[in-house]
Design goal:
Length: about 210
Amino acid sequence: MIKVNEIFFSIQGESSFAGYPCVFARLTGCNLRCSYCDTAYAYEEGADFELSRLVSRIEKFRWPLVEITGGEPLVQEETPELVRILLEKKFQVLVETNGSLDISGIAGCVRILDIKCPSSGESERNDLQNLKRLTDKDELKFVIGDRADFDFARSIATGAGLPPGIPIHFSPVFGKLPPETLAGWILEHKLPVRLQLQLHKIVWGNERGR
C-alpha cells in the first residue's frame, strides 16, 4: 500500500520539463517542515492505494510524463517499486525529493534533488552525500529566499563533483524574493544555472491540484 494525497494532470511548473503537460502523483507525508512550504496539506492527508490501483489511475490520463512528488515521496518504502513499475510501463518518470534522504534507492528516473537553503529552516537536514549520487540524468534545485540562501546555493552549485552539464535551478520563494533580484544575482556572478519560476503558480496562482 502507498498513501496518496492527490493525482492530477497539469502543466509542469518546474525543472527542465517546465511547460510540458504532466501527470502528478502527490504522495502523503514529509519529514521536513520548510518555512515556505506550499503543500502542507500533504503532511497527513491522503488515501491508501494498492500500487496496481495507483498505476491504473495514472494510466487513465493517457500521458507519458509522470512526476512523483510530495510531501516527500521517499518517506514511503513503496516509492522505489512504484517508480520501477512506471518505468517498466515506459513512462518517463520524474521524482522530486527534498534532499534529506538517500536517493540511491530509486534509479532509472529523473531525480530532482531539492537542496534546502538556510531560510527554509531545514538546511541542516540536507544529506549532502546525495550530491555524489547524482548522475547526468538528474537535476538540482535550490529554493532561494534571500541573499544568504543565494550564497549558500552558489557555493554548492559551483563546487567540484557535480556531473558535467547537470541542470541546476535557482527558484525564488514565491511572493517573498522578487525574481528580478535573483536574476540580478545570477548575472552578477555569471552562474551557469537556470532562473526557475514556478510556472504553474504564474498561470493559476497557488491553487491546489495545479
